[in-house]
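Fold it.
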Amino acid sequence: MDVTEYGRFIMTAHDKTLIANPEITVRDERFNRTNTPSRWWAGEPFGTAWHNALSGTFPRGEAFFIESVKAFREGTDPRLAAEIRAFVKQEINHTREHVAFNRLAADAGYDMDMIDRRTAELLDLAKGKPAIAKLGVTMALEHYTAMMAHEFLANPQHFANSDAEVRKMWEWHAVEEIEHKGVAYDTWNHATREWSDFKRWMRRTIIMMIVTKRFLNNRWKDATELLAQDGITGWRAHWGLAKYLFGKPGVLRRIFPAWLSYFKPGFHPWNHDDRALIGKYEGDYQDALLPA
């Protein structure tokens, strides 16, 4: 559906109706406290390695997201201010749950500290950089999390053979990533409100290219090092991971059109209205719903 941003709303190109950004709900769920899934909790090594590589970055990465967005909350309109508060609460909960998940992976014998150290080193590169640059990086990475969240929820094949509670954690996380996918972007628009449209577009697209290179290079390195801990090395590791990411189920292949859309002038995360995916899974968390 082609849409145009209109303040805090989305306007469809065809019927000109306004769609409000969805309310952000904090679901205070807890997972993976008692279960002990198998070492290959995804049912095979490559999906397990990829998701462990992602999870290993989240505790430090989401703290970086929170601080980057909070740096520009002053002067925001009441709705965006409320969304930022809810975004922070959701990300704090995500951090807590991925700390627990990473502990499970470490208990299964994986060196998750390796990923944490590499993430810390990468974040150190941002020290001293302008706050707006950090927000730009957060905005780009939030687009990645939203794209993958959509794919995970829209195509259950990604977790078809995984441990049930681990799958539920990723689904819960994905729902909330979709729900708050516009917050960093709207904060960027607020922070750069004095910039020209061209300057905004140029800066965010350059940042996305840099982020993409680092994201793919480092997650690939993390995943192949985790595979090596399973005795899968060399061409077997690289070929197997490539088949998983670009073949079947092919999360990176499938999110490519959404990634490309980021470079379109006038892009907004809610150009792609996937609120239905929130409702599809929300019923699983009724007991945990808390008002934002």
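The chain has ten helices and five strands.
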